[in-house]
């Protein structure tokens, strides 16, 4: 007869406590009663997104007297965009679609709320055919040959 592994013994053990259970108050007290070494440490502001310490930069910004803000598009540029768009017969949505931007971007530029972006300004200039940057704002855009 062939040898069989009837002598193999399999021992099933109960799983230990999970991480959350091992950290519970009851598990810590039970481990202390059994005489096991228990190490506990309290983390400062654990589980919260708090950072209440003042850095040198924060203090320096607090002492600043001038108001820090981004430059916005001037109302003059906004009016030029609006007039150029209307002269071509575009709505804000049409112009936005033509330059691959959201209609809100055009609305912000026309109302003077937008922070100027040279790429967007260039796209709008080419779409309406008017200069929006430099000294001669509102003048027709010269379309010369591109130099390479």
Automatic annotation (TrEMBL):
<feature type="domain" description="HTH cro/C1-type">
    <location>
        <begin position="81"/>
        <end position="135"/>
    </location>
</feature>
<keyword id="KW-0804">Transcription</keyword>
<feature type="region of interest" description="Disordered">
    <location>
        <begin position="1"/>
        <end position="25"/>
    </location>
</feature>
<dbReference type="InterPro" id="IPR010982">
    <property type="entry name" value="Lambda_DNA-bd_dom_sf"/>
</dbReference>
<dbReference type="GO" id="GO:0005634">
    <property type="term" value="C:nucleus"/>
</dbReference>
<keyword id="KW-0805">Transcription regulation</keyword>
<dbReference type="GO" id="GO:0003677">
    <property type="term" value="F:DNA binding"/>
</dbReference>
<dbReference type="InterPro" id="IPR001387">
    <property type="entry name" value="Cro/C1-type_HTH"/>
</dbReference>
<protein>
    <submittedName>
        <fullName>EDF1 factor</fullName>
    </submittedName>
</protein>
<dbReference type="Pfam" id="PF08523">
    <property type="entry name" value="MBF1"/>
</dbReference>
<dbReference type="Pfam" id="PF01381">
    <property type="entry name" value="HTH_3"/>
</dbReference>
<dbReference type="InterPro" id="IPR013729">
    <property type="entry name" value="MBF1_N"/>
</dbReference>
<keyword id="KW-0238">DNA-binding</keyword>
């Amino acid at each position: 007869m062939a040898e069989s592994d009837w002598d193999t013994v399999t021992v099933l053990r109960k799983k230990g406590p999970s991480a959350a259970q091992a950290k519970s108050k009851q598990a810590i007290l039970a481990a202390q009663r059994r005489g096991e070494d228990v190490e506990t440490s309290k983390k400062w502001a654990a589980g919260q997104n708090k950072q209440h310490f003042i850095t040198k930069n924060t203090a320096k910004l607090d002492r600043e007297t001038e108001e820090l803000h981004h430059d916005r598009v001037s109302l003059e540029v906004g009016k030029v965009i609006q007039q150029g768009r209307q002269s071509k017969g575009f709505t804000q949505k049409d112009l936005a679609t033509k330059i691959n931007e959201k209609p809100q971007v055009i609305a912000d530029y026309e109302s003077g709320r937008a922070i100027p972006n040279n790429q967007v300004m260039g796209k709008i200039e080419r779409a309406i055919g008017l200069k929006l940057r430099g000294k001669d704002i509102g003048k027709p855009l010269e379309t010369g040959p591109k130099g390479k």
